[in-house]
Amino acid sequence: MSSATEWEGRGLSAPVVQAMERALVLAELGRGWTSPAPLAGAVVLRDDAPVAEGFTQDATGRHAVFHALVGAGELARGATLVLTTEPGGPPRAVVDAVVDAKVGRVVIAAPDPNPASRGHVRDALLQAGIRVDDGPCGPLALRLNETYEVFLRTRRPFVTVFSVMSIDGKTATSIGERPPAPASLLDDLRAEHDAVLLGVQDLVAEDLLPETSRERGRNPLRVVLDGMARMPLGSRVLARPQVAAQRSSTLLVTTRYAPKDRVAALREAGAEILEVPTTGDPLAVNVDLDRLLVLLGRRNLASVLVEAGGTLADAAFEAGLVDRLVLFLHPTLLGGASSPSLVGGVGHAFLESAPRLMDLEARIAGEGLVVTGRVGTSG
After folding, report:
1. Distance between CA atoms of 128 and 122, rounded to whole angstroms?
2. Helices in 77-182 by DSSP H: which ranges?
3. Pick from 260, 318, 321: which is nearest to 296 by CA?
4. Which residue has better confidence, 324 or 4?
5. Is residue 205's pLDDT more than 90?
6. Distance, CA of 193 to CA of 215 (rounded, Å)
7. Is the pLDDT of residue 43 over 90?
8. Does residue 76 contact residue 44 with C-beta atoms inside 8 Å?
9. Distance CA 179, CA 171 (A)
10. Contact at 8 Å (CB) between 3 and 120?
11. At what angle do helices 14-28 and 64-72 cross, to 10 degrees?
């Protein structure tokens, strides 16, 4: 976080810096609910004391500024409105709300992540006679919406690969037993993504039902790579939900090689079917992940969590489609020359060609360690 001293020379007092830090915390409360709209938090300061706050709460995109101003009521007159992110879309509604509330000053940490509307609200506020200042914590506010920014720029979902591995880099024992991850970690990751991508072999082997058990959290769309429509009809992942509010649908990704009778039976069992081209060896029936992500982007899915076995992780990294890697390091040493690792294949001969993790973060979770990083390139 930025220090108050750092910003005093720029006309930003300690209460403003503290309010921005609070707004960042508030913005995080919307994670998993606002997609494909960006996250945002807001605090109203009157006489350097917070009197109201708000955050963007759902995909309607009703920005944090409206919730904060409603909470402030008459106390917004002459107050300072602190925002993590410039509101997007047509500026008229935001400007009218700020002007009607008679706010004296607006402090914004980060611009609108959408290039098509970036600066529109800021300019309109200035034209309306409202003072607008750049706020502290800009890099943190930008990081809040990296998923949204990548989605807007590429029109494909932001891809996070999640995997559990031992301290010596193995994702399973020599006979296939996998080290576990804390349930809360997996819950949080699933809840903040629009879709979860899995290989059918992993789902069949463990009869998984990827969803979140969080009280406040959406269940992601389950996207299962099943090129030959091998999913058992009795699989839990196909079961129709009993509670509509907890609906979590399943999308089976098949290819033209899948038997038509199997595809029809799976559709009848409750799965939605999406046929995607193959890539590489036709006999391997490998789904074209690049094309799949384009199609998911057209469905307005801004983020995908890949719960990766080695084969799926290999394919995602090989295609250059991974934006972020989240690893849970289990405190075991599994060993074994033939035990699987996160990324297999031929491997990279030179460091310069290998993907590299940047902006690394690490924290303790349960009995292990969570390591997170953006995926870039060496050199």
Report:
1. 10
2. 92-100, 120-127, 138-144, 146-154
3. 321
4. 324
5. no
6. 16
7. yes
8. yes
9. 7
10. no
11. 120
Nearest alpha carbon to residue 185 among 38, 330, 316: 330
Q: How far is CA 142 from CA 67, 246, 281, in A?
A: 21, 31, 41
Percentage of the chain lying above the pLDDT 90 cut: 52
Q: For residues 295 and 274, what is the distance between their CA atoms, to the nearest angstrom?
A: 9
CA distances from 320 to 161, 306, 325, 376, 377 (A): 12, 14, 13, 9, 10
Residues 283 and 315: beta-carbon distance below 8 Å: no
Whole-angstrom distance, CA of residue 270 vs CA of residue 261: 15
> What letter would DSSP give residue 220?
P
Complete DSSP assignment for 170-191: BSS-TTSPPPP--HHHHHHHHH
Residues 58-86: pLDDT tens digits? 877 689 999 999 999 999 999 999 999 99
What's residue 341's pLDDT?
A: 79
Contact 86, 118 (CB under 8 A): yes
Residue-wise burial string across 205-224, b where 16 or more C-beta atoms lie within 10 A, e elsewhere: eeebebbbeeeebbbbbbbb
Tell me the pLDDT tens digit for each residue of 95-112: 999 999 999 999 999 999
Residue corresponding to tokens 């996070």:
160
- Give the residue, 225 or 208, on which the prediction is more confident: 225
**Residues in CB range of 74: below 8 A, 6 or more apart:** none
Q: 92-100 and 64-72 helices cross at what angle (nearest 10)?
A: 20
pLDDT at residue number 248: 45
Among residues 26, 133, 47, 53, the alpha carbon closest in space to that of 86 is found at 133
pLDDT band at 309 (very low <50, low <70, confident <90, very high): low
Provide the whole-model pTM.
0.84
| Residue 305 predicted with pLDDT over 60 | yes
Which structural domains are found in the chain, ordered by start? 4-145 (3.40.140.10), 155-377 (3.40.430.10)
Q: Are 109 and 83 in contact (CB under 8 A)?
A: yes
Q: pLDDT, tens digit, for every residue of 322-334? A: 999 999 999 999 8
- Token reading at 313: 């992780």
Residue 31, Cβ neighbours under 10 Å: how many?
A: 17
